[in-house]
Every structure is written in C-alpha cells, then in structure tokens.
C-alpha cells in the first residue's frame, strides 16, 4: 500500500510540467496530459516544439489533439480510482462496513493496472518519467531497425515472385484490359494519349541530333555490310523473273522518241566527228545513214521482244549478277563505289532531309484526329481489345507478359525497392518520427490504459472476493 502511495505521489511531480522543459518533453502520458498547458509556454522548449509542430500536416494536428484528449481521459480515470482508493481506505479505518474493503481492493488493482499500462504505452515512445530505464523509448532507439524490418517484411510478403504471380493471375489483367479497350471511348482516349506522347517525343528531339545519329547508323551499317553479293542475288532474281524487261521497254521507247525529236542532233554529232578532209555532202550522207540505222535498230528492239540485242542484254545482266556474287574484282569495285557515294555530302544531306520529312509527316498525322495513322491505331486498339476480351489464348499471353515483367522488376530491383523504405525511415528524425507514430496510433493506445484500469479493478475485486470467501 505504501509503495503504491509513493508511486502515486511521484507521478504528478514528474509529469506536472513545473520541473522545466526537460520534464515536459520526457514525461509519460499522464505527465504530458497534466503539464501540456504550462510546458507550451516555457521559453526555448516551446520554440523547439513549435518548430517541430510545423512539420505536421493539418490531419496530423487533428490526430495529435485526439491523442491529448484520450491521455487526459485515461489519466483522469487513474486519478479517479486513486481518489476512490484513498476514500475507501479512509472509510475502512473509520470503521465502515465490509464494502470499503471491496472498493479499496478494486481501486488498488485498478491503479496497478493503469500504472502498468501507462508504463508500457509510454515506454514505446519515451523514457517514463524521464528515467532511462532499459528497454524503454523503443521507437526512437529502434527506428532504423524497425525500418529494416519493415523493408524485409514488404520484400518477403509483397515482392516475392509467388505473391506477385498469384495476385496478378487473380486480377486477370488480360480480360479486364481487353474489355476496357473494346469500348470506343476508351480506344479514343488511348489513341489521343499515344498521339500526344508521340508528338511530345518528336518535338523534344532535336533534328540535328537525330540526323547525326541516323546518318551515322546508316553509314556504319552500310560500311560494315558488303552490298555486292546482295545486289547480285537481287539482280539475278529480277532477270530470271523477267522483271527487267519493263525497264528495257521503257528505256528503248524513250530512246526512240528522243531520236524522232532530235534527228538533227545525231547527224550534227556524226558530222562534227568526221575528218576535216572529207567533203561535207559525204559527212551529211554518213550522218543521215547512221541516224536511220540507229532509229531502225531502236525501233526493232522496241517492237521485237525476241530481238538479239535484248538477248545480249539478258546475258550481260546474268553474267554481271554472277560477277557481283563471285568475282573478287567486281565486288571490290562496288565496295569502293559505295564508300565514295556514302561519303558525299549530298547523300548525308539526303539522309538528314529524309528524317525531317518523316518527322513532320508523323507529327502532322498525330495531330489530325482523322488522319490515317490515328484511325489505324484506333482500329487496332479496338480489334486488340475485342480479341483480348474473348480469346483465352490472347488473355493468357497478355497475363504471361505482365507477370513476367512484374516478376522481373520485383526480383531484379527488390533490394532497391525495399531500400527505399529503409533509407526513408533511416532519414527521419527520431523525435519527429516518434510523435508522428504516436499521433496515428496513440489514441488507440490510450484505450489500453483505460481498459487496464477497468480490467485491473474487476480483477482486484474478484481476487479480493475470492480471498474473503476462502478465508471465511
């Protein structure tokens, strides 16, 4: 009894706030409730507390006020049972009836339960009464360890391959995504978002950078790849299929038309190349003869698919295709020609202008809601959504892709993800973290104090009653 009286007398002294700012900060739940008003006005301690409070959100402030109210309630209940105990003891010494013993036992046990739970709750956040008792102020001391444990818990129970696969498989992303995409409004939205992203990406990219990269990539790829064998195979296939004949027809037809229109030019060229000692009329006759023979040759070649010249051209192209594939000298000459062509500034300018034209075309198509590009994308999304919503195989493929990607991320970057938790907790201020946690769970913890008082009183009453019955 005397020990409990001393404990009861010590509690207000350590928690009342008259002992200075240190006592106000370190006191337990009962002390903080009794000294909150006086401690708030204490010089530098009040300034420190004000600065700490500025880091709390309005919602946190509401929770902190709720915790303070519950602390006052729990402390008030403790003081109430203490008063009941004193009055019951006084009545018992004054010769009151047996009821005083029952009330005294219940109140005494209630005080014990209240003080024990006050100590337990306070020890989570700070040293009770400011005394550095071992295994108290658990949260400030174990903050970093709690962060590591929380990170490990998340990694083992939320970021494991089995959990990720199970949750994603239960969601059925393939069917849900398909049903969502199959709605025209949703397909329009996705198309618009993709168009905006494409426009943004192409707008951010600098033409000079892209042109340099594309030009270098094309040049490097062309330099590394020998083109003669490929050209030879393609030419051999074209000749075998007769695909070159239309080109020959076009060339011969254009040559015939040119000769008809420029006969004088041909004769002048022949006469200009004749020796100076030949008579002019001889030069004219020779020029006229050459022109007529040339026109006859071109006309026959145009009109006769089996013309010998056409056959000779076929044989030449066939032999040239074979040389491109097997003749070392021919292949070397083609490679030298390729290098010379790629090195010319005109070719590089052509590559650069091609990118500019392609970019402008894509941006314009992305901006136009009725462009072929956006219409095709929208139609593809609707078709994909319909298939995903109805085809189990497609759903399984999509689910497999999503599961694989998610599993890869969580297995590859699990440490980085959990370290985000541990590093964040480690970077928190211990005092602020303690207050933050207390603001969120402190109200429920005060109910533990209240329950401890009530349950302790009932247990004390029961024990006292049993002891009286057995003693009788």
TrEMBL record:
Span list, region Disordered: 1-35
Biased amino acid composition, Gly residues: 14-32
RNA-binding recorded as keyword: no
Keywords assigned: Membrane, Transmembrane, Transmembrane helix
Keyword Transmembrane carried by entry: yes
GO cellular-component term (any): plasma membrane
Basic and acidic residues composition-biased segments: 1-11
Superkingdom of origin: Bacteria
Transmembrane segments: 72-93
InterPro entries, alphabetized: DUF445 (IPR007383)
Name by which UniProt lists this protein: Putative membrane protein
Organism listed in the record: Streptomyces lividans 1326
